[in-house]
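Hello Y.,

Per our agreement to keep a running log of every chain we model this quarter, I'm adding this entry. I've kept the format consistent with earlier entries: sequence first, then predicted structure.
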Amino acid sequence: MNLKKPKFWDYKKPSFYSYLLLPIAFIIRILSLIKKRSKIKNLNIKTICVGNIYIGGTGKTSLSIKINEVLQRHKIKSCFIKKFYLKQEDEQKILKKRGKLFLNSKRIDAINEAANEGYEVAILDDGLQDYSIHYDATFVCFNNINWIGNGLTIPAGPLRENIYNLKKYQHVFLNGNLEDIEEIKKYLFKINPKINLHIGKYVSKNIKEFDSHEKYFIFSGIGNHQTFVNMIRNYGLTIVKDIEFPDHYSYTKNDIENILNQAKNMSAKVITTEKDFNRLGNSKDEEIKIVKSELQIIDEEKFTNTILNLNETN
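Predicted structure for the entry above:
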């Protein structure tokens, strides 16, 4: 089932529905505290968890790839770890293209597999709320546009845990197109003055393949659709329409036919993300083009030193 998050989650202030759901949110938080148990640490491999507090669309996979690139450049044998979810096959394919991926229904089992094969560092794409594992380092990702939504926890808002839990985390990564950076930084440092903050933005790797004189119809089913749209607009391309599908959406033949027909009526070219193209299956069409993007680290030297220092410590 593909579910879109409620719109009131991303209001700047809690709505009537948020307050109505607050008691359930409180119960969920209590249950999560009860579920916490002693943490397991594999001493034969170091672990870096790239997770989030805001649910979905925070750039975890992009940041995991960047961390892997840093480690590989410095001849450190690293790999990706991901808990197996059938609906996340798109992300699994992207990670497999960039390195070795260990998949398992239990993250700790995947970590042990990596250690047994001689890997030095395991990069976990997601898993911040997996309290059974002791991580050597954690990165909490946020998207600048979505930020923390209305600031409340599920189901009253989009947060997996209270934002003030940032006091216990080491590193925060902000990504997007540099929207509202200064305000977000002030908020973060007010919660945790010692937080190690890193910033990135999305850039296209193949934007020269697209003609600025053409019109474009965009669709995507990712957690940060508006960030993708803004990135393309920043390159000067004309977008006549964009459609947002739920994250990890499974496209049907009818979906694609409808998109192509709408675009044709607007005399527009159709573009989507690499992640979405991987989910088109038999509906792949030569009329649909991919805008390939990657995360560009703004403070690259600081970020690289942070990753290398993490590998040397503990």
